[in-house]
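Follow-up to my post from last week.
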Amino acid sequence: MRKPYLYVLVVLMSVTIAACGGKKGVKDEGASVEDRGVSAAGTGTGVDAYGRPIGAGESGDMLGRRKVYFEFDSSALDDDSRMLVEAHANYLVNNPTVTLVLEGHADERGTREYNLALGERRALAVADLMGAMGVAGNRIQNVSYGEERPESVEHDESAWRLNRRVEILYGN
Amino acid sequence: MSKILRIGLCMLVGWTWAVDAHAVLEIEITQGVEAGVPIAVVPFAWRGSTPPPQAMSDIIEADLYRSGRFDTIPRRDFLSRPHDHTEVKFKEWRLIKAEALVVGRVQELKANQFRVEFRLFDVFKAKQLSGFSYVVNGGQLRKLAHQISDIIYFKLTGEKGAFDTRIAYVTVEGANRQPRYLLRIADSDGYGAKTILESKEPIISPAWSPDGAKLAYVSFENRRPMVFVQRLVDGARDKVANFPGSNSAPAWSPNGNTLAMVLSRDGNAEIYTFSLATRKLRRLTNHHAIDTEPAWSPDGRQIVFTSSRGGRAQIYRMRADGTNVERLTFEGIENLRASYSRDGKRLTLVTRHNSGYHIGVLELDSKGLLVLTNSTLDESPSFSPNGGMILYATRQGGQGVLAAVSSDGRVKQTLKFQQGDVREPAWSPYNRKL
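User reply:
Got it. Predicted complex:
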């Protein structure tokens, strides 16, 4: 809003960086993941695992919002979501050691595997925009839970609206 | 027409399995047929020191009734209760309009050893169609009852029965914020359930190996979906796919050597094949849309899958090397998660209409789509190995339950487990020896 040309410059630069970076948004961490003894292990919920809200930056109001919502069977970001993601991306650009997990989710309609892929597309849509804003792909890890972790367990449109989301979960 | 068959569970513990004694089950036939073959199943005679460990004739009668092909005659109408050919008076059975008659007896030979005999008669021709004698232990009685049901089914319908098979499914127990996911295996009638995996993270997409000895599935136990293969006899697990991103939707090739699955290692969900022997990957699809839910044709030459490349999810078919992609479904708003019948002529799938997500059958020759269910959140359909029934997941009273429908849509039933949300059923292949 404030300095549009500066903004465009940042976007242009980051597009270049992202293009040079090659792979987008998916962090290779396959080797570092340890298997847990499943029947006994406690792995907790996603939110607890990825830490608590961080201090507010200059776009503090936006940074307090950590959920991006979507239309049914869509991974498109509307204008409001775009602003939200851009605020987080700006924060990440200014705090280059912070990493994050983008957790994609879907509502229960349709099949579980399709929804797993859909949740992933949603996470990718957020990651792509962050990448375009200059956040290096290796700082972002995408995870999809599909329809497996609903925010609301009811079975109506008001619940489904909450469940079609990407959660922005900060690391260190 | 609604009828509840309720049978208490009384299991002898198998040596490798922990059996949940509390898992009482109700099977509710929600829609039946009037035109089934009228059959009388006489309670088997019992000779032994203790009460019989299994009510064999109850299990057989329930199997035949659930198939939708038979009309089981109420026992109160029986004029006599014969147990072998010398005691049968065919006139008595013609009087109550039975066309087929099953009699038998169970004898305790020594501790945990039983002789089971049964005979099947054609009432009108007044002749025996089949008869066998077996010696088994207590833990085998339930399975033997299903095998006898299979023999009766075959003799009377000319088609192979699928009672002596199993189902895999996932239950979720516990509060919403602290769920426990259980991957379970039970007999085809839902009894004898055993937990083979327990996790605090989601488990989805169980898939039987063609020999019935292993299950592939997707587990989120490492906070990211990965594909595992677990051997059922001893529970040994192999993590076959933990590539970056999602690893999901495993499907066995008919020869059991290859898994088709969906990986997002290159950013977007694409279908790959993975050789279990060489651990080599081969990418089959390359499209920016969603490609998922692969399933092999029984001859192993083709793979059907779900793709959103046309805008909405529809079923496509390609050669097993990824070439010759063609769209198969055109009816309905969306079609998802197709899998083949054993004869390769039909697909069962989830079909979305304005009324919701239903189970359907697509005839591959005519491309005709038959919608079988009218509940609105149906998913995960799979054919019984004889193609006669389709097992699927649906919601009833806000809870996930398993249901089955005959592949012509005429008979429907619900399997109600006493606890937990039940989903992701998969019907096993044949090949399970006593």
